[in-house]
Amino acid sequence: ERLMKDWISLVYTFFNPKPCIVIIEGRRAHEFKCFGKSCKATVRRYLDKKDARSTGNMRKHVRACWGEDVLMAADNAKDANEARTKIVRGFLRNGSITASFERKGKGQVAYSHRQHTRAETRAEIVKWVAESLRPFEIVKDQGFQSLMKTGRPEYYLPSPSTITQDVRVVFVRTHECIAKMTKEYAGKLNFTMDGWTATNHRAFITFLVHLEHNGVLLSFPLDIVEVPKV
Question: Given a cut of 70, is residue 69 above it in pLDDT?
Fold first, then answer.
């Protein structure tokens, strides 16, 4: 505890505040456990060296584990509390500092320097192909792969079949969520339907439900049915 009073660097917010004291070949050292998700690494600092209070190795680990942007955000925080609550906890919760931290004087941080995990990549691609009406096969496009992998040839891209499975999973879970919401909704539900003919001359009818949720009007498509030929 006596030594901890001198640990004023904000880099300590990325580690367990109480390090373990270990003895390696007769030498005492502090081992700092990283707070990173799934990170089991520790940073060891020997107490019999002149740099016993050095944070160089700790910063090196944070830069590799959390990303340069997160480390810079911590350095720019006004105090340890802001670094801990807004940056470290925000990053652990969302995988990004953009949700809870704004870079002072430069507006909100738009993108993270941290590479997506495989799960995050799959989620982002599902969102992209759904919102932008992209074909699943686009991930095999040579130009797309060049854009994604240049400078990061090891970057993971899921196969079209994986995207298909992910979209189905998202659809099922979204369907269950909407069903639960409409079933438990205490107000009135409004239903509408519309019909149109696609450019390939196939006719469709869609059914929608409309409701108010926390003062916001929500509309959900419930089903799309192709009109059979007469």
Answer: no
